[in-house]
Amino acid sequence: MHRILLALTLVIFAFPAMATEAGWALLREGGHVVLLRHAYTLGTSDPPGFDIEDCSTQRNLSERGKLQARKMGALFAARGAPIEQVYSSRLCRAVQTARLAFQYEEVEEFPPLDPLPADPGAAAKARAATMDLIRSYKGWDNIVLVTDLENIMALTGQTAREGEALIIRTYDEDLRVLGRIIFN
Predict the structure, then answer these.
(1) Reading across the β-sheet that carries 174-182, which strands appear in turn?
(2) What region does 47 belong to: left with phi over 0, alpha with psi -120 to 50, or beta?
(3) I want to staple 37 with a disulfide (CB 3.0 to 4.6 A). Which of 63, 80, 160, 161 is the partner?
(4) 148-181: per-residue pLDDT in tens?
(5) Which residues form the signal peptide (predicted)?
(6) CA 61 and chain centroid, separation
(7) pLDDT tens digits, residue range 84-122?
(8) Which residue, among 160, 153, 156, has the nearest Cα to 38 in the 3D structure?
(9) Is the pLDDT of residue 16 over 50?
(10) Strand, coil or helix: what is 136?
(11) pLDDT above 50 for 13
């Protein structure tokens, strides 16, 4: 019984490391799109009175999140993952993650990566604009899209931790997750 528990523990802890290594291998190749969930924040939901233009009304990065974002950028550089362009939601936590992580790249705010509107038609339009951006990318390096969990789930049907990257590719009308990188 002890050996079974030990084996399960090793598998549980080894899987994220293997997934992360496979993700880095993809990014070193270039030509990929990365959906990156913003770094660690304070709290779990935005306070009442949320305003996309006012950071004081939003959940923001914690000190741990700021360190995590800097680590992301350092790892992209150290792992030889070339970045062509960085796009970000206008959420303060996403913009701050993008700027701290990719300080030598220009960060372009891309409103379709903002939290999805409550109106289903407007949400579909935002998703379509993001899909158009993803489909149109044909570069040699990688592009990074920094957003929130809601958008990542709407685009891929999968969840992501704060500070987790999903390497994606389009297949017909859908996105397929090719790899993940977990930034602790």
Answers:
(1) 107-109, 83-88, 142-147, 33-37, 164-171, 174-182
(2) beta
(3) 160
(4) 999 999 999 999 999 999 999 888 778 999 999 9
(5) 1-19
(6) 14
(7) 999 999 999 999 999 999 998 899 999 999 999 999 999
(8) 160
(9) no
(10) helix
(11) no
Evaluate if residue 8 carries a pLDDT over 60. no
Specify the pLDDT at position 22: 87
CA distance 118 to 184: 32
Euclidean distance between the first and the last CA atom of the chain, given in angstroms as a whole number: 31
Q: How far apart are CA 94 and CA 112, in angstroms?
A: 13
Residue given tokens 């990156």 in the structure block: 36
Burial bucket for residue 173 (CB in 10 Å: 0-12, 13-18, 19+): exposed
Residue 17: per-residue pLDDT:
43
Query: pTM here?
Result: 0.88
Number of separate domains in the chain? 1
Within 13 Å of residue 35, how many CA atoms lie on the same side as its CB? 30
Is the Cβ–Cβ distance between 42 and 60 less than 8 Å? yes
Domain of 158, CATH number, reads: 3.40.50.1240
Residue 70 tokens read as 């800097």
